[in-house]
Amino acid sequence: MVGVSFDTLYEHYMALSAAKDKIGEHTREYLEAIESTKGTEREKKLATQMIASFFKYFPTLQEQALEAIFDICEDIDPLIQIGGVKVLPSLCKDNKSYTGKVSDILAQLLQLEDAAEHHIVCTSLTELLHLDAKSVIKNLFKQINERDNEVRDKCLKFLLTKVKGMDKSIITPEVEDVMITEVKNSLVDISGQEYVELIDLLKSTRISQSFTGQQELVNMAVEKAELHKEFHPTVQNAQVDKLLTCIKMVTPYFSAKVESTKFVTYLCDKVLPKFDEIGKLEKGDLLQLAILRQLAELSTYCGQLDNPSLYVVQIYQKLKDYMPPPPEDTTNLTMPILEFSLVECLLYAFHRLARQCPDFLTHDPQVLKEFRSRLTYFSRGVQDKKTKTVAPKLLSNITTLIRDLFYQPPKYQCVIKLSFKSEEIATAAKTTPEKISPSGKRHTPITFESNGSATQNKQSRGDGVPLYTPPSGKFSSTFSNRGRGRGARGRGNPRSWRK
């Protein structure tokens, strides 16, 4: 059977419209409308309208009619193609069993580059979300999980811009379950930027609202960071970037019930010994600062360590690198460069973890004496800097931490707010008032004797250093070995996007 002329097709349309209860007797007219999707431009447009209008009345022809509309969606004429895309959701309203197949086709059509066409596809997919969100989400992830698929980025963007944040009447708990399962499956083989985006998508679900779900997010980050492997800084910064990204994505979820122990032990045991190598990488100083900032934050919620001194000693050794001993010649003191931002992080992490092995500094009097000489010398630099360019909060934190360590024996009791934490995080965190003595008076600041005014020959760095932001494209190869080849889809290549 072949299509009919436009005039005959229009007569068929009028007949079907007037048939009412006897419309089922007009199978021939509807079948000719299906065949007319291969006709002229006018016939294709009218045939598309007829197929959509009377689709529910001809169940035995629905498969054939649906395939005809799919062909229309691949037409060389953009207007005809848009017409086909627009009617697809209406076919699913009449028969929801087709939602899966239609959403799969629409997901593939997201690759259309023309802005108007792409918008229509997004609108049709959104309509389908209201009909059957689970099927739509499954098919979007089907495209995301396929290799060498040029539409995967578009599908992910649709999820993040259209699905994320939709009303709970559409994204029900059952739909969220599907989304959570699909994201977990997708995390196995993705790039760095995709990891960030998918975790953001998970955060929009109820998984982030419970301690169990938060622990699950942390476990995903642990797995993706591959903490079971050795740490090897590379010229491309890839492994460093990956680690920083994985930690950053879940840092807000650490708490007394969701511990950061695995990341802390990895940073101490594997990363700190390679700290100098990291410094030699591109933007190595920012990488080093970013790592120490994360170590400091993570140490707040580190659980009980099996052998804490093994990890504390790594922080201690690094502290000694940035807290120089006083010079032997005290006649002409020249203060070296003091890395206050790095020392704040290291002192804080040491202060938090050393409470698990309080005899670390006291088991050998010589160790304690030597460490305190460094603390004293560094404190002179802190005092000198208070009227300079370093942030007062940073200097105050260092002074407070040092004060605890000068007790006999050292104490690990003070509570501070890290200077680099954003106001948003600081406000959300539970704060602790300034420590007050049993007498009700605040401790007076500890001062350190000086043999003269210290001078500096170079300007020290304050806490205004920006946190290093990993470039997603740069470390994507360490997240996935997938080749991301791009195929070309041209008009007039029927079914090039249909599988």
From TrEMBL:
The keyword Lipoprotein is annotated on this UniProt entry: no
Key words of the record: Apoptosis
Pfam families: API5
GO BP, sorted A to Z: apoptotic process; negative regulation of apoptotic process
Biased composition range(s): Polar residues: 447-459
InterPro entries cross-referenced by the UniProt entry: API5, ARM-type_fold
Top-level taxon in the UniProt lineage: Eukaryota
Protein name: Apoptosis inhibitor 5/fibroblast growth factor 2-interacting factor 2
